Amino acid sequence: MPIRVPDKLPAIDALKQENIYVMPAHRADTQDIRPMQVAVLNLMPDKITTEVQLVRLLSNSPLQVNIELVRLEHQAKTTSEAHLDNFYRYFNDIKDKNYDGLIITGAPLGLKNYEDITYWPQLKEVLEWAEQHVTSTLYLCWAAHAAIYYHYGIKHEIRDTKLSGIYKHKKWESKAPIMRGFDDVFFAPHSRYGEVPIDKLNQEPDLITISGSDEVGAYLMQNQSGTRVFITGHPEYDRATLHDEYVRDLEAGLAPDIPVNYYPNNDPNLGPEKSWQAHGYLLFSNWLNYNVYQKTPYNLSQVSENVRTDNFA
């Protein structure tokens, strides 16, 4: 099944070039099925690029998924107000609705204290709202650290050097449904300074650390019921995303390290190799299936009443 997005969203044309079918809203309205309702709170400055990345991964599912793009009150730096007005809804306008799933993206805020972020009060409101209005929420990178801090009081620490590159991960909890179909090792991009120590995560009884490595620490976590899923990396990244970040930092005079395991022969003059897309597709597909579709009520008005059981049952 395709996913449904607003008519004329730029992601439609971009993904058609990759032979990915994205259904415009007017076509989806003719299908008599109960589609999944997934909201995306996009905190990234370049919202259009992130839209393409997430729609790509959400498209690889037999479920029809209706996407609703959500924004907070703060002004995006690199996305036009016209695009936001055409395709996004303010959180205050949708907070009376229920959703099967919610995705909250990362943001380039890893070096700031949460309380110093201008939209932190409203983001906290979203995190609390999701507990009663969403079956499962997927937090990416900075949003994962922010949600762990909000829900469990565990604050991330700042690494001495930026974690940037494509890293190998292992399955630490192979029985987790979200890991079904995964190889023993898999690759995923990281681009962050923040890190939550594993020993602190393991002290929280509601958290399950599902995968990671000695090099990157915890990568994939969830709570016992699967209503909160935390990913500290970027499985949605395009082939050139880390390259663009590397060039940006070079031009800013930051002397960045070359992203690990990214360029052939570690040579930035050679085109980067993409080794994580299959993992990204499987991860998002499993989340939609096991954490959302198989848990959510048919009648979305009953989301807050839904019994949240152990996701390993």
UniProtKB/TrEMBL annotation:
Its main location: cytoplasm. Belongs to the MetA family. Transfers a succinyl group from succinyl-CoA to L-homoserine, forming succinyl-L-homoserine. The record marks 191 as: Important for substrate specificity. It is an enzyme of class 2 (transferase). It holds the Pfam family HTS. It is found in: Cytoplasm. The lineage of its organism: Bacteria, Pseudomonadati, Pseudomonadota, Gammaproteobacteria, Alteromonadales. The keyword Transferase applies. This is Homoserine O-succinyltransferase.
